[in-house]
Amino acid sequence: MNASTKQSMMAGAAPAPTSPAPSHAPAPPPLDAPAVVEIRNLSTVFGEGADAFTVHKDLDLTVRKGEIVSLVGGSGTGKTVLLRHILGLTRPTTGAVTVLGHPASDLTTEGATSRVGMLFQHGALFSAFNVLDNIGFALKEQGTLPQDVIHDAALVKLQMAGLKPEVATRMPADLSGGMIKRVALARALIMDPPLLLLDEPTAGLDPNGSDEFCELLKELHATLGLTVIMVTHDLDSLFALSTTVAVLAEKRVIVTGTPAEVVHFDHPFIHHFFLGDRGRRAMEALPPELAGFPVKES
Ligand SMILES: Nc1ncnc2c1ncn2[C@@H]1O[C@H](COP(=O)(O)OP(=O)(O)OP(=O)(O)O)[C@@H](O)[C@H]1O
Ligand SMILES: [Mg+2]
Predict the structure, then answer these.
(1) Which residue minimizes the CA distance to atom 25 of ligand 1?
(2) Pairing assessment for the beta strands 227-231 and 68-73 based on DSSP bridges
(3) Could you give the number of structural domains in the chain?
(4) 165-191, pLDDT tens digit by residue?
(5) Do the Cβ atoms of 246 and 59 come closer than 8 Å?
(6) Does residue 100 fall inside a structural domain?
(7) From the CB of 232, is ligand 1 less than 6 Å away?
(8) Is 178 within the bounds of a domain?
């Protein structure tokens, strides 16, 4: 047992996967895979008149079934707002957001959580509820299932997120940062949604915690056949998970492609993001055949 596994177990997390081999991002789905999210000509304007503030303008994005899309962009460029559009929580000023063939705005009225799971930027759990009640919250709100069925479903998701059953009765204040992320993930998956949105899922985790969380996401993506859209500033997670990178700048998605393709795109944000010190370190850790792009000599 290595040190990080031991530490995880002491903290109440299930043992980390035993294979220490670094694994690569999943292969992208076929180009004719159906669209799960289609955003067309999206504009988002907050405020009115002199206070009007445009966040998105003529933004287009298509996400196909089985993709893991990393959405990157500077702070305040509208990444979280874009996820809120996909969830149907923010309405487009103009343009259309379609999720699984329906306008996203329908999601809030008919079973949003059964179609889209969301892990919010600050992973907020309900502090007054224990872990199991947090995970089962959406099922309970639905009001159609008996308590013992909700309990069992939440327990399955708890373990799917790599936590041991004894964590079930703990309160959020008694959890480590990594465990909070796992509980939030279990909660997002309670209704078996085909689409998972993650807002900075590894922020605040140490490198070990972050690697373990990426492995968990990769495993769930493969076993549950999920489509994932993940906002991230974490280049290690980006390279470990993404089939696709979408870059938000100038109020729109300026480029989408594999990580290797996007790195070649000529734009100041991309230079700064991928070719700064952090980016070069993350890229140097990749096998050359996967990186497929030049790493500048320092
Ligand atoms: N409901 C709202 N009303 C007015 N302005 C808003 C609202 N929601 C977000 N904004 C503004 O929209 C802009 C984009 O916000 P958003 O939270 O999407 O940024 P972000 O790209 O996620 O940034 P970060 O990387 O820091 O999380 C910000 O200037 C924010 O203040
Ligand atoms: Mg944000």
Answers:
(1) 75
(2) parallel
(3) 1
(4) 999 999 999 999 899 999 999 999 999
(5) no
(6) yes
(7) no
(8) no
